[in-house]
Amino acid sequence: MQTTIGTAISFDGPGLHSGAPARLTIRPAGADHGIWFKRCDVELGDAMIPARWDMVRTSPLCTEIVNAAGVAVSTVEHVMAALAGCGVHNALVEIDGPEAPILDGSSVPFVRGILKAGLRPQGVPVRAIEILEAVEVETPSGWARLSPAKPGTGLEMSFHIDFTDAAIGRQEKRLNLANGTFVRELCDSRTFCRAADVEAMHAVGKALGGTLENAVVVDGDKVLSPGGFRREDEAVRHKMLDALGDLALAGAPILGLYEGHKAGHALTNALLRALFARPTAWRMVSCDAEMAESLPGSGVERDEIPAVA
Prior knowledge:
This protein has helices at 77-86, 108-117, 181-186, 195-203, 234-247, 265-276, 289-292, and strands at residues 3-5, 9-14, 21-28, 35-39, 48-50, 56-57, 64-66, 72-74, 91-95, 119-121, 127-131, 135-139, 142-147, 155-162, 170-176, 192-194, 216-219, 222-223, 254-261, 282-286.
C-alpha cells in the first residue's frame, strides 16, 4: 500500500550552495498526492512545486525544481532519496527558503527523522514504473542507462566513478535496493568535492554553505575533512544516493536496472526525459504484495541506520 509520514518532522540548517538558512518540514499527505514542495516564504503567486522530472532546471552541482511561476527549490536530491529509500509515497515538503538544508551532507538525518515519525499505510496500492526497453543517454564524459529488471527484482543500481584524486580514484558498486538496502548501505554517504574545485564553485556563487563538516573534501591522496571517509567507497555510494533521489522525480518507484558511468544530476534527469519520451519503454503497474517487497522502503527498521552516522 501507499504510505505517508506518520507525523510532521522538521530540519534546520544552511543550504550547501546558497549558504542561506532554511527550515524544511515534511508533512503527511493523502493517497495519490505524490511528493510536493511548498515555498512558505513566497506570499504572492504559486508556491507549490511538484517533485517531478519535468520540473527540473538543469544544474550540474545539484537538482533544482521550478514551477511555471519561476518559484524554485534546489538541492532536493538528499531529501528525495530519503523519502524514496524509506518508502514514503505521499508528502508535502514545506521550506522557508530557496534551498534544502544540507545537514551533514548525506540523507541520514532525513532518514532518522522519517523513521522516528513512522509511516502510515493508506489503503491504496503503490503504482510503479516498470522498464520495458533499454533507454540510454550519454555525454562526452559519461552515460546513464535504464533497462528492464531481472525477474523478481525491483530497482537495481550499478555506478562507476573515476577521479584523478587518489583519495577517490576509481570506484564501482552494484546494489539491489530492495528491503532497506538504501538505509543500510547508502543513506549515510556524504557529498564530496575536490579542493581544487572549491574556489571555482565560490566564483560562480556555489558551495557558499559548504564546510568540512557537511562535505568530504579531498586534495590528491588526502582527505581534508575530519575523520576521513565513513566508508572506503563513500564517494561512489553518495553518487548512488544522488541517483536514487533524482530517479524519485519519476513520480513513482522504478522497477528496472539503473547504470551510471561518471553520471550526475543533469544526466540522470536527461535519462528520465528520454524514458518518458518513449512510451514503449515503460508502463505503469499496480504493485502486488510480492512486487512491493522488492521496493526500496519495504521492511525498513530504525535499527538498520548505520551506527557510523
